[in-house]
Amino acid sequence: MPSKNQTPPNGRPARRAPRAADPAARGNGAPRIPAPTPRPGGSVAPYFTDGYRHTFVGESLLVHADCMAWMRGLPSSCVHGVVTDPPYGLKEYDVDQLQKMEGGNGGIWRLPPSFDGSSRQPLPRFTALNVGERERISEFFTEWARETERVLKPGGHVLIACNPFLCQLVYAALVAGGLEFRGQIVRVVRTFRGGDRPKGAESEFPDVCSLPRGCHEPWGILRKALPPGRTVADCLKDHGTGALRRSRSGSPFLDVIPSRRTSLEERRVGGHPSLKPQELMRQLVWAVLPLGRGVILDPFTGAGSTVAAATALGLHCIGVERRAKFFQAATAAVPKLADLPGLR
Question: Out of 64, 153, 189, 208, which residue is the most buried by the measure of CB atoms under 10 Å away?
Fold first, then answer.
C-alpha cells in the first residue's frame, strides 16, 4: 500500500481545516490559487473542486489537496466506492525520508543491494515503528474511516491496500471508524520483502530467515453499512452500490488475484516508489462499481494509478494528492498509464 500522500498519521488532524490552499494542498498562509480551467465538454459537482488546484483527465479528476480537509468539505453520500493505497506508516513519505531514499542514504527506506545485475526497489521498514507510532496509525485510520464512511453512499465499498505487518491494525481502525469488514483480497506477487538472514549474524545463522519471503499483498474489503431493513438489491436500485461487479466473463469477482510486479515501463512513467500495476488496478476499479457507473475516490492518489485505471475503462474517478511533487507527476502520468495497451 504505499502511497504516499495525505495528512500523515503523526497525530489526529483537526476536525475542521481552513479553506485556503498552500503550495502542496491547504494551509501555511499561502494566497488562494487562480480559478481552475473548466472541464471541456462537461461539468462536475463544484464541491469536488471548490478552491482547490485541479485538472481533468478524460472523465476523471485530479485534486491537489489534503484528503481529510477535502473530504470534510463534501456532502454526505456523494461517492460510490474507494480504491486506494495509503501510506503505511508515519515516516516514509516525509520530505526528509524521501530525500534520503533518493540520495541513497536509506532512512526509513531499506535500500536493497543489486541482485544479478538488477536494482531492487526501496522498501519502507514498517518493523521500525514503535508502540506509540502504531497507536497514531490506528488513530489516523479511525478518523479517516469516519470521514470516508460519511462521504460514501450506503453500501459503497472500500478496497484498501495494506501489508502483512500492519493489516490487522489498519482493519481494526477502519472498523472502529464505522466501516464493515467484508474480507480481504490477496494479490499474489513475489516481493523482495523478508527472507533475509539475521542482520549482523548472517554467517553465524546461514540456515534461517528472520521473516518469510513475501509472496502476497493484502487488500482489505470494507463497506459502508446498508440502511436498516434494506437489502443489497435495494441498495443497487437506490444508490448503485452494495455489491461488487462480476468479471467481464460473468464469473464472480475473486479474492485472489495473481499479479506481476509493476513493470519498468510503468515505473518510468509514474515516478512514484509505490506505484501499483495497471494490470491489478483495472480489475479493482472495475469491481468497485457494481453497475459500472458512479464516482470512485482515491484519497491517496500518488502518481495516479487508480485514476489511470478508471480512465482506461471509461469510469469516473477522483484522485486526491497532498504533495505537489506527486500531484504534478500524476497529472503527467495518468494519460500515459491509461494508454498502456493490452490491459483493458
Answer: 64
